[in-house]
């Protein structure tokens, strides 16, 4: 913790709400994380594809972790607060109390999580309209966006629908709790709600899909006051929120970001001089930030709008002011790896051996792969084992939530070797999916030379190396592992007025850690793996067509 000799140092608090936990960090003006805290939050899964949370539980966790990271710090040194969160839907009633999003009437469960796929019928009907707003989400809306979820509530929970005071994207709910101001972030409303920075809301879209109620009240329920990310919200922290968070009343609170976008903000603008990277002396548009956690997001920016089939956007100023954003994604990555590993019959053996060696299960698996590779490069062990990773549907670039996962090359073997191989093949499949997304972006006009990785999976060296080898691009890892939290703190720094712009804060607070180069001598092997990868989805569609002919 800072001592008396550092009284001139300015600090910013970043709060990140992920799928399973809330984290906070105290960050200085050079992007160094000085203190960090984390607390789990509850997830309910009342039925398949329904995922719910509690906004009260989330806010309580935000307060707890924030108090922890600022404990012992001179309050006058804390200059700003920034939030990021998953793009989950929060519902409150006209008295601003939590309102049920479930058939059981459990009001405390008032959040439909981003990964909830209950609104399949609704999104199919929305996409059938072919409305012009769909051009800005890759041509087809995802079930993970907010309009289908709103339509699901109206159709399935009419009593709740009549009682609604506000619908918030979770990042905006947090800035509202902190300031009492219902302003929305341009990031959330553009990326998940169909708002556009030049035209605002499109009345014809909401009327066409059956949500004309939202138009009648001039969009009061979903937001008619929009701020740019990093812009100061209201008069700062309210007395009540200041007490809850353990922060000074009135400190600057920033308009928020979706978590993936905060991660992008924390890494994509870093100074790369001296690392011999192809993006050095090139504009930021040559970079893609990849935020890898429960799911993965691929964030690329451009000076002019680029329409990429199957990739969300272009969104103007949704992450970096003045630039257009395209966002590719994979709905299940960290979650998929956990699912494959923990569901294997040899998992108890792995767990015991990892514990005995005082390593995580993934560090142990990486070491085990090194033992069994013999003279081969590790990646070549999967020459006969192939995975299609869409166990939770395909977000990009195929935009097909009906796709299923596939594994080709299984045997009767059930041991630790086989678990290590399916783990490796799953990581490779995720990296091949990234290559698929990057190729779609490049075909549409992006010129990507370098990947910038952050998030939990970026801590796994095998995951990082496979992404470098399979895409053929160098991977830059940030100095601070918690880049998402740095991104949230950058927002607070901008809101405080200590930096002239987000770009200035990004350059000063985003730092490079190390660079992982692709092993170009392995290119031919991964080119062949990619050919197989594309064949897998082709075959899946063929057999589905056969069965659908019944």
Automatic annotation (TrEMBL):
<dbReference type="Pfam" id="PF02782">
    <property type="entry name" value="FGGY_C"/>
</dbReference>
<dbReference type="InterPro" id="IPR000577">
    <property type="entry name" value="Carb_kinase_FGGY"/>
</dbReference>
<dbReference type="InterPro" id="IPR043129">
    <property type="entry name" value="ATPase_NBD"/>
</dbReference>
<dbReference type="GO" id="GO:0019321">
    <property type="term" value="P:pentose metabolic process"/>
</dbReference>
<protein>
    <recommendedName>
        <fullName>FGGY carbohydrate kinase domain-containing protein</fullName>
    </recommendedName>
</protein>
<dbReference type="Pfam" id="PF00370">
    <property type="entry name" value="FGGY_N"/>
</dbReference>
<feature type="domain" description="Carbohydrate kinase FGGY N-terminal">
    <location>
        <begin position="11"/>
        <end position="266"/>
    </location>
</feature>
<dbReference type="InterPro" id="IPR018485">
    <property type="entry name" value="FGGY_C"/>
</dbReference>
<keyword id="KW-0808">Transferase</keyword>
<dbReference type="InterPro" id="IPR018484">
    <property type="entry name" value="FGGY_N"/>
</dbReference>
<comment type="similarity">
    <text>Belongs to the FGGY kinase family.</text>
</comment>
<dbReference type="InterPro" id="IPR006003">
    <property type="entry name" value="FGGY_RbtK-like"/>
</dbReference>
<feature type="domain" description="Carbohydrate kinase FGGY C-terminal">
    <location>
        <begin position="289"/>
        <end position="495"/>
    </location>
</feature>
<dbReference type="GO" id="GO:0005737">
    <property type="term" value="C:cytoplasm"/>
</dbReference>
<keyword id="KW-0418">Kinase</keyword>
<dbReference type="GO" id="GO:0019150">
    <property type="term" value="F:D-ribulokinase activity"/>
</dbReference>
């Amino acid at each position: 913790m800072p001592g008396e000799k550092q009284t001139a140092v300015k600090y910013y608090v970043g709060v990140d709400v992920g799928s399973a936990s809330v984290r906070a960090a105290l960050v200085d003006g050079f992007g160094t994380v000085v203190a960090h805290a984390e607390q789990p939050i509850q997830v309910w899964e009342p039925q398949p594809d329904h995922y719910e949370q509690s906004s009260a539980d989330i806010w309580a966790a935000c307060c707890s972790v924030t108090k922890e990271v600022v404990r012992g710090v001179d309050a006058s040194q804390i200059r700003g607060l920034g939030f990021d969160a998953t793009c989950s839907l929060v519902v409150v009633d006209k008295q601003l109390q939590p309102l049920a999003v479930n058939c059981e009437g459990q009001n405390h469960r008032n959040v439909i999580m981003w990964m909830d796929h209950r609104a399949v019928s609704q999104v199919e009907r929305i996409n059938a309209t072919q409305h012009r707003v769909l051009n800005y989400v890759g041509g087809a809306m995802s079930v993970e966006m907010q309009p289908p979820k709103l339509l699901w509530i109206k159709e399935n929970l009419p009593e709740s629908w009549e009682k609604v005071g506000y619908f918030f994207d979770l990042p905006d709910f947090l800035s509202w709790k902190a300031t009492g101001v219902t302003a929305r972030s341009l990031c959330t409303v553009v990326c998940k709600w169909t708002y556009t920075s030049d035209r605002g809301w499109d009345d014809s879209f909401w009327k066409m899909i059956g949500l004309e109620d939202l138009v009648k009240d001039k969009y009061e329920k979903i937001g008619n006051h929009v701020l740019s990310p990093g812009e100061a919200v209201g008069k700062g922290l309210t007395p009540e929120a200041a007490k809850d968070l353990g922060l000074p009343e009135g400190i600057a609170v920033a308009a928020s970001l979706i978590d993936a976008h905060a991660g992008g903000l924390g890494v994509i603008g870093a100074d790369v001089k001296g690392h011999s990277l192809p993006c050095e002396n090139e504009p930021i548009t040559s970079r893609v930030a990849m935020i890898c956690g429960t799911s993965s997001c691929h964030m690329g920016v451009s000076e002019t709008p680029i329409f990429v089939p199957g990739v969300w956007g272009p969104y103007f100023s949704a992450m970096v002011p003045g630039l257009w954003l395209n966002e590719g994604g994979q709905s299940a990555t960290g979650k998929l790896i956990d699912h494959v590993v923990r569901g294997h019959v040899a998992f108890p053996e792995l767990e015991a051996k990892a514990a005995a060696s005082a390593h995580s299960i993934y560090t142990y698996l990486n070491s085990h792969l090194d033992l069994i590779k013999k003279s081969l490069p590790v990646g070549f062990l999967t020459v006969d084992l192939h995975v299609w990773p869409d166990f939770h549907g395909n977000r990009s670039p195929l935009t097909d939530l009906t796709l299923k996962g596939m594994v080709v090359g299984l045997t009767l073997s059930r041991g630790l070797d086989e678990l290590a191989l399916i783990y490796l093949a799953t990581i490779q499949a995720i990296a091949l999916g990234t290559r698929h997304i990057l190729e779609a972006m490049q075909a549409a006009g992006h010129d990507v030379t370098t990947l910038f990785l952050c998030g939990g999976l970026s801590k796994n060296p095998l995951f990082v190396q496979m992404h470098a080898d399979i895409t053929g691009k160098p991977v830059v890892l940030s100095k601070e592992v918690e880049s998402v939290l740095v991104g949230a703190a950058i927002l607070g720094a901008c809101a405080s007025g200590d930096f002239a712009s987000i770009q200035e804060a990004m350059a000063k607070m985003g730092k490079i850690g190390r660079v992982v180069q692709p092993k170009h001598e392995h290119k031919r092997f991964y080119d062949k793996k990619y050919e197989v990868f594309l064949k897998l989805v082709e075959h899946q569609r063929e057999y589905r067509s056969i069965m659908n002919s019944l």
